[in-house]
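**User:** Everyone, produce a chain:

**Assistant:**
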Amino acid sequence: MALAPAVLQCLGDSPRTILTLVSIALLAYVVYMRHIHPLSRYPGPLFASLSNTYKAYYVYKLAIHEKLLELHNAYGPVVRIGPNHLHTWEGEAIAPIYKGGRSMGKSEFYDAFTAFRPNLFGGRDEDIHALRRRQLSHGFAQVSVQKLEPLIEGQMAILISKLRRHAQTGETFDLKHALNLYVLDILGEVAFAKPFGVQLTEDVEKLHAINDHLLLAGVIGELPCQDLTKFLSSISPVPWMRRLMKSRLKLKGICAGCVRFKIENQEKITRPDLLRSLVEATDPESGKRLSEEEINSEAFAVLVAGSHSTAGTMTLLFWHLIQNPSIMRKVQAEIESTLGPLAKDQTSYPIAGLEASLKYTMACVRENFRINPVFTMPLWRKVGYPAGLDIGEHHIPYGTNICISNYVLHHNPSIFGPDHAIYNPEKWLDESWNKEKGRYLIPFSVGHRMCIGRNLAMTNILKSVTTLLAMFEFEPLQEQKERSVRVLSPGIGEMAGCFEVRVRLRGEGGR
């Protein structure tokens, strides 16, 4: 019994002791991360160097790209934005980071985007990636995409009909909303063997589900212990977190159902589309084909990235053209002089030769890619060189995660000048500028991991822009004429708010 007072005394002091030990541990952690850690030499916010929740918070706020630009303007060319994460806006870092092959592999960030199995975008295994690229390359080649033009034109005819009605009534409408539904239905046609029908039903549920998946993956990807985070998200009492998980499951169900339908009706549905290409895809070296789960994974990636990035890019391109009437008139003049009016039996201009023949239009497209890239995601790479990586005067230690965000790169004044925030396509007509600055314009990334969907995206953008500008005149609402545009993005973004316009038919082009 004599021991009882001593035990009670220890128990009484334990909360204070625990608090003291925790305080010492936290202080030691802060001192190590700020003064001893291999990345302690790099500037950045205090909290960013201590916790990955700094990055995750700004992804959740849809503003990580804007925050990164703010940090570079404050701290310089290389900024520490995580305990083991560096971000740079130096153009010379593109090749070392994204053309480093196996020595600069993808980080754990990409695991968050896996819904079925790792796909071409999210997979980190280089051997599987090389195999998948070989299997899918033919289906995404330009010659294959051109065979999909009739499917694209079917959806364009619906959009044109809607714009004609708006022209007749003179009413205002949200062009961003119309383009989002249009592109999603195109993806349904070319990637899933049937349109989703959202242009006719105005059903936006699938659009919200895609946004939710991107937000969920973007936030979880920036955090450690992803499996635990995903599990906690699935049982979270927070309504918005449960909604995000429910949206991902919904998209998985849509993809799986379309793939199963295509496989079961492969002999009946013989038209060319991307899903057929996935079902029939073989490795030219081994003859290996994709399993149904692998097809689901790739179809899921096409649905999420293909619709969101293309619609977002197209909306912003129209915004810049409509807000700058003199530029839009030059585009229309080039379309008329180069392509001529659309024939009565034509729905749209064919894609063949558009990119090469429309120099001014392509300058506008390139400037839109520069000033408002919708793919703002930090594409993290992990330094795998045992001795680390040297980029200019900066040494990046082994095991460090490093990346470049397109948005930040394109707003680096040392590359694109003090007027980098001004939309000016004329610069891209200068061959010396084009050659010099084009190295830093990477809307589809670079290297062996560059986006395989480039041809499909450019086909959608160029066919739509040339056809709609040949047929219609667009006018923004008066109160929007002086408004600047902002992109909200968890990784793949879109224009903030609505884009209300009026439209009217143009001369012969409008038929």
